[in-house]
Amino acid sequence: MTLIGYFPKLVASRPDWLKAPQVREIASVSTCISKGPPDWIDQWRHNSFGLFDTVALAESVVPPAQAVDFEVFAYSLLGEAFAEGKPTEGIGLTAQPEQLAEDFSVVGYDAVSKSISDFFECSPLSCNGVAQHLTTNDLCLFPTFDEAQQGAREFSFGQWEPGTYYVIEVRRRCPTGRCS
Question: Which terminus of the chain, N or C, has less C-beta within 10 A?
Fold first, then answer.
Protein backbone atom coordinates (compact mmCIF):
# COMPACT_ATOMS: atom_id res chain seq x y z
CA MET A 1 0.00 0.00 0.00
CA THR A 2 1.29 3.42 -0.96
CA LEU A 3 0.15 6.67 0.63
CA ILE A 4 -1.57 8.82 -2.03
CA GLY A 5 -2.89 11.76 -0.02
CA TYR A 6 -5.21 13.37 2.48
CA PHE A 7 -8.79 14.61 2.25
CA PRO A 8 -11.10 16.55 4.59
CA LYS A 9 -14.59 15.13 5.06
CA LEU A 10 -17.80 16.06 6.75
CA VAL A 11 -18.47 12.60 8.18
CA ALA A 12 -22.15 11.68 7.87
CA SER A 13 -24.13 9.36 10.08
CA ARG A 14 -25.62 6.27 8.44
CA PRO A 15 -28.54 7.38 6.26
CA ASP A 16 -31.92 5.82 7.08
CA TRP A 17 -32.10 4.09 3.69
CA LEU A 18 -28.91 2.11 4.41
CA LYS A 19 -30.24 -0.99 6.17
CA ALA A 20 -26.93 -1.95 7.79
CA PRO A 21 -27.37 -1.60 11.56
CA GLN A 22 -23.65 -2.22 12.22
CA VAL A 23 -22.82 1.05 10.40
CA ARG A 24 -22.69 4.19 12.57
CA GLU A 25 -20.93 6.63 10.19
CA ILE A 26 -19.78 6.72 6.56
CA ALA A 27 -15.99 6.95 6.13
CA SER A 28 -15.79 5.71 2.54
CA VAL A 29 -13.36 7.17 0.03
CA SER A 30 -16.34 8.33 -2.01
CA THR A 31 -17.80 11.77 -1.36
CA CYS A 32 -21.33 10.66 -2.26
CA ILE A 33 -22.52 10.64 1.38
CA SER A 34 -19.72 12.07 3.52
CA LYS A 35 -18.95 15.21 1.57
CA GLY A 36 -15.79 17.18 1.00
CA PRO A 37 -15.64 20.94 1.47
CA PRO A 38 -17.67 23.09 -0.91
CA ASP A 39 -15.72 24.18 -4.00
CA TRP A 40 -12.54 22.34 -2.94
CA ILE A 41 -11.83 21.28 -6.51
CA ASP A 42 -11.99 24.86 -7.81
CA GLN A 43 -9.02 25.81 -5.64
CA TRP A 44 -6.68 23.50 -7.64
CA ARG A 45 -4.59 22.43 -4.65
CA HIS A 46 -5.26 18.72 -5.12
CA ASN A 47 -2.97 16.08 -6.61
CA SER A 48 -3.71 13.71 -9.51
CA PHE A 49 -5.87 11.51 -7.24
CA GLY A 50 -8.12 14.40 -6.16
CA LEU A 51 -6.46 14.33 -2.74
CA PHE A 52 -3.99 16.66 -1.04
CA ASP A 53 -0.28 16.08 -0.57
CA THR A 54 -0.22 17.57 2.93
CA VAL A 55 -2.57 17.78 5.88
CA ALA A 56 -2.18 21.56 5.78
CA LEU A 57 -3.34 21.68 2.15
CA ALA A 58 -6.32 19.46 2.99
CA GLU A 59 -7.27 21.76 5.84
CA SER A 60 -6.74 24.88 3.71
CA VAL A 61 -9.72 24.13 1.45
CA VAL A 62 -12.18 23.94 4.37
CA PRO A 63 -14.04 27.20 5.03
CA PRO A 64 -12.78 28.56 8.38
CA ALA A 65 -16.29 28.70 9.84
CA GLN A 66 -16.66 24.94 9.20
CA ALA A 67 -13.19 23.79 10.27
CA VAL A 68 -14.42 22.05 13.43
CA ASP A 69 -16.94 20.02 11.40
CA PHE A 70 -14.41 18.41 9.05
CA GLU A 71 -12.02 15.52 9.70
CA VAL A 72 -8.90 14.76 7.68
CA PHE A 73 -8.46 11.23 6.35
CA ALA A 74 -5.36 9.65 4.78
CA TYR A 75 -5.56 7.14 1.93
CA SER A 76 -3.15 4.46 0.74
CA LEU A 77 -3.59 2.55 -2.52
CA LEU A 78 -2.96 -1.07 -3.43
CA GLY A 79 -0.76 -1.27 -6.53
CA GLU A 80 -3.15 -3.46 -8.50
CA ALA A 81 -6.75 -2.87 -9.52
CA PHE A 82 -9.60 -5.18 -10.56
CA ALA A 83 -11.51 -5.18 -13.85
CA GLU A 84 -14.12 -7.82 -14.64
CA GLY A 85 -12.93 -9.85 -11.66
CA LYS A 86 -9.30 -9.98 -12.74
CA PRO A 87 -6.28 -8.16 -11.31
CA THR A 88 -4.92 -5.47 -13.60
CA GLU A 89 -2.15 -2.95 -13.41
CA GLY A 90 -3.05 -0.11 -11.07
CA ILE A 91 -2.73 3.61 -11.51
CA GLY A 92 0.70 5.14 -11.93
CA LEU A 93 1.67 6.71 -8.64
CA THR A 94 2.36 10.37 -9.32
CA ALA A 95 1.43 11.91 -5.96
CA GLN A 96 4.13 12.68 -3.42
CA PRO A 97 2.34 13.26 -0.12
CA GLU A 98 4.10 14.18 3.09
CA GLN A 99 4.93 11.36 5.47
CA LEU A 100 2.00 10.03 7.45
CA ALA A 101 1.79 11.48 10.95
CA GLU A 102 1.39 9.23 13.99
CA ASP A 103 -2.06 10.60 14.78
CA PHE A 104 -3.63 8.71 11.84
CA SER A 105 -5.01 5.26 12.60
CA VAL A 106 -6.23 2.60 10.18
CA VAL A 107 -10.03 2.41 10.43
CA GLY A 108 -10.72 0.02 7.54
CA TYR A 109 -10.47 -0.60 3.82
CA ASP A 110 -12.63 0.48 0.92
CA ALA A 111 -13.18 -0.82 -2.60
CA VAL A 112 -13.86 2.16 -4.83
CA SER A 113 -14.53 2.61 -8.53
CA LYS A 114 -12.84 4.79 -11.09
CA SER A 115 -14.41 4.78 -14.53
CA ILE A 116 -15.25 8.20 -15.97
CA SER A 117 -13.42 10.61 -13.69
CA ASP A 118 -9.79 11.32 -12.96
CA PHE A 119 -10.65 10.77 -9.29
CA PHE A 120 -12.13 7.88 -7.33
CA GLU A 121 -15.90 7.69 -7.59
CA CYS A 122 -18.23 5.30 -5.78
CA SER A 123 -17.97 2.84 -2.94
CA PRO A 124 -20.74 0.27 -3.35
CA LEU A 125 -20.70 -0.40 0.40
CA SER A 126 -22.14 3.05 1.09
CA CYS A 127 -23.26 4.47 -2.27
CA ASN A 128 -25.28 1.41 -3.26
CA GLY A 129 -26.15 -0.02 0.15
CA VAL A 130 -24.04 -3.17 -0.25
CA ALA A 131 -23.06 -2.85 3.44
CA GLN A 132 -26.39 -4.49 4.26
CA HIS A 133 -25.22 -7.65 2.46
CA LEU A 134 -21.52 -7.82 3.39
CA THR A 135 -19.46 -7.62 6.56
CA THR A 136 -18.42 -4.06 7.33
CA ASN A 137 -17.30 -2.18 10.39
CA ASP A 138 -19.16 0.72 12.01
CA LEU A 139 -17.64 3.15 9.47
CA CYS A 140 -19.06 1.30 6.44
CA LEU A 141 -15.62 -0.05 5.50
CA PHE A 142 -14.29 -3.54 5.10
CA PRO A 143 -12.57 -4.54 8.36
CA THR A 144 -9.70 -6.35 6.63
CA PHE A 145 -7.54 -5.91 3.56
CA ASP A 146 -8.48 -9.41 2.31
CA GLU A 147 -12.20 -8.61 2.49
CA ALA A 148 -11.64 -5.36 0.60
CA GLN A 149 -9.64 -7.12 -2.09
CA GLN A 150 -12.41 -9.69 -2.51
CA GLY A 151 -14.99 -6.88 -2.57
CA ALA A 152 -13.06 -4.99 -5.26
CA ARG A 153 -12.86 -8.17 -7.33
CA GLU A 154 -16.63 -8.78 -7.01
CA PHE A 155 -17.63 -5.13 -7.54
CA SER A 156 -15.55 -4.98 -10.73
CA PHE A 157 -18.09 -7.18 -12.51
CA GLY A 158 -20.26 -4.05 -12.67
CA GLN A 159 -23.32 -5.18 -10.73
CA TRP A 160 -23.22 -2.08 -8.51
CA GLU A 161 -21.22 0.65 -10.24
CA PRO A 162 -19.23 0.35 -13.48
CA GLY A 163 -15.49 0.69 -13.65
CA THR A 164 -12.21 -0.63 -12.44
CA TYR A 165 -12.00 -1.06 -8.66
CA TYR A 166 -9.20 -0.12 -6.31
CA VAL A 167 -8.48 -1.14 -2.73
CA ILE A 168 -7.82 1.82 -0.45
CA GLU A 169 -6.61 1.71 3.13
CA VAL A 170 -8.47 4.40 5.09
CA ARG A 171 -6.85 6.19 8.03
CA ARG A 172 -8.65 8.65 10.25
CA ARG A 173 -6.85 11.43 12.05
CA CYS A 174 -7.33 11.05 15.76
CA PRO A 175 -5.90 13.56 18.23
CA THR A 176 -5.12 10.80 20.71
CA GLY A 177 -3.57 8.55 18.08
CA ARG A 178 -6.44 6.09 18.53
CA CYS A 179 -9.81 6.14 16.82
CA SER A 180 -12.86 4.81 18.60
Answer: C
Please tell me the number of Cα atoms within 13 Å of 28 on its side-chain side. Answer: 31
3-class secondary-structure state, position 146? helix
Q: List the domain range (segments joined by +) for residue 28.
A: 12-33+73-173
Q: How many alpha carbons lie under 13 Å from residue 36 in its C-beta half-sphere?
A: 22
| Nearest alpha-carbon partner for 137 in 17, 23, 5, 9 | 23
pTM for this entry: 0.91
In a domain, residue 99? The reply is yes
Please report whether residue 57 resides in a domain.
no
Q: What residues form DSSP beta bridges with 106?
A: 171
Residue 94: Cβ within 10 Å count: 9
Q: Which contiguous run of DSSP H or E holds residue 155?
A: helix 145-155
Q: Classify residue 39: in a domain, yes or no.
A: no
User: pLDDT, tens digit, for every residue of 5-56?
Assistant: 999 999 999 999 999 999 999 999 999 999 999 998 888 888 888 899 999 9
DSSP letters spanning 100-136: PPTTEEEEEEEEEEESSSSS----HHHHS-GGGTS--
Structural domain tally of the chain? 1
